[in-house]
Amino acid sequence: xxxxxxxxxxxxxxxxxxxxxxxxxxxxxxxxxxxxxxxxxxxxxxxxxxxxxxxxxxxxxxxxxxxxxxxxxxxxxxxxxxxxxxxxxxxxxxxxxxxxxxxxxxxxxxxxxxxxxxxxxxxxxxxxxxxxxxxxxxx
Amino acid sequence: xxxxxxxxxxxxxxxxxxxxxxxxxxxxxxxxxxxxxxxxxxxxxxxxxxxxxxxxxxxxxxxxxxxxxxxxxxxxxxxxxxxxxxxxxxxxxxxxxxxxxxxxxxxxxxxxxxxxxxxxxxxxxxxxxxxxxxxxxxx
Amino acid sequence: xxxxxxxxxxxxxxxxxxxxxxxxxxxxxxxxxxxxxxxxxxxxxxxxxxxxxxxxxxxxxxxxxxxxxxxxxxxxxxxxxxxxxxxxxxxxxxxxxxxxxxxxxxxxxxxxxxxxxxxxxxxxxxxxxxxxxxxxxxx
Amino acid sequence: xxxxxxxxxxxxxxxxxxxxxxxxxxxxxxxxxxxxxxxxxxxxxxxxxxxxxxxxxxxxxxxxxxxxxxxxxxxxxxxxxxxxxxxxxxxxxxxxxxxxxxxxxxxxxxxxxxxxxxxxxxxxxxxxxxxxxxxxxxx
Lengths: 139, 139, 139, 139
Prior knowledge:
Four copies of one chain form a homotetramer. Chain A has helices spanning 8-13, 17-21, 53-68; strands at residues 24-30, 33-40, 73-84, 91-101, 106-114, 120-134. By secondary structure, chain A is an alpha+beta fold.
């Protein structure tokens, strides 16, 4: 897996303002794969004091989006299923996305979120639809 | 459906720092039901300029959490499936959660996200697990 | 909702050999809607003596397929999420499918399975992809 | 992974009448893992002539049930998400289930269905709830 995080694909995804605002960072992007990272702080917590389901989802979704668009074709999420296994309230979480099926108009990705102990925090399964436009047409 | 948004349940959910940071507000909370709202601004957008899947998910998840915890028992998400139907880049979105099944340890909620034209933007189906603690024990 | 079950759409779906073998019957088909029925007998049970998750899924999936194809365009399932609420071991189950979003290439349907007491047994959320062919081209 | 298919766990799952009726067979069962197999014939087909979504689901669900119950504790499905990647109309399909998270009351399993060319036909993600009873109490 090549590290494309400093090239134009990485530059493109730095335009994601929602990810940036929530402290979600690109680790690396490769063909059909991507990793993102989030340091869980007070502002990611819900009312019961654990990382908000939406924060975990957003981290995984960002890795999913980068992996799904890594070929340069605009690809948008149509459905996601996420399962939560471990509550966390601090520490660095890493989301790793990989393509499960990608040949046609519909593509599918699995994203694992793991904590610093390498425990599985959440499992995310995303389906996406490839549009005809290319990312470079949007810039 | 009673409007409990100013009472202690509403107060409890105002402790959700992730929701607050992302402009997600309580509309109302009732037994097995809740509504939340988000005004989509630049900071909710992804790299292609539409509302981030994570922002939409977080809005729905907040309504889900309020509905699931509306009985006062601590109830945590275990699995969610979300489908996206319409891309949005501005305007007020409202998420309405209602209980589909809730008698036992496992409860299930449907959340609809609609825009100002009342179009369905996303449909969220959440399963949750009721713990033995009560929310008041956490305060 | 019109009852098209005796017309050509109903005839088309009677070709579903898997449904027929498992005692799954058409109740009615209308635009974006359909109902199917199954009388739970010994042959639908799993090893613990309750209706097999696959039998419940197959019932809902048949209603989903009829609703999704009710416009005459070949539409195939790409993703389904199903939640189970009540174990059953006998009686008639009815699956009612309705379109949630249907305008484009991707369409979405909700299917409820209810028992004779009208209790919700399972909730099924299906996404489908519309192909260019028409059902009549397949006959 | 041990092959327990001839021992009492295998005997227990041979009681699954729905699986038997639909030609779904046990390949092997081990701790947190199981494999099942189905030879796709005419009776597994839907109205458009491909393997019915319900037949594919049932195959995966049977492997899921065996893996989830492999520890001897009664474990029931609460939610499943399935994605379909390749239409098939004949040949032997194999479903391989493995535990993703299993320590507590809620456990999660991934099941892959592959055809004879080892292509991924469907991906199944199942959540289950562990009851207090043991399988041997049911016999």
